[in-house]
Amino acid sequence: VLMEILKTVLLAVVRAVLEFLPISAQGFVQSIACLSGRGAADSGFISAFLSIPVLVAILLIFRKTLYQFVS
User: Fold this and answer.
1) Which pTM does this prediction carry?
2) DSSP state of 21
3) Mean pLDDT for each 10-residue chunk of the chain (71 residues)?
């Protein structure tokens, strides 16, 4: 169970870093998930799950801009 958690955390870090690069973070995360022994169905769930921290990171980075836009 601990190894699965560590793999998921590693995938989250990879996705967060790749999100700001001009490459497909989605495809890269799915490739890593499949190579690490997870199935294609698992990689889809993990990719959707990993989108949450990416969204939070983007909201934190642009919070001042978003606040000015809403105000």
Assistant:
1) 0.42
2) S
3) 80 74 66 66 65 80 90 82
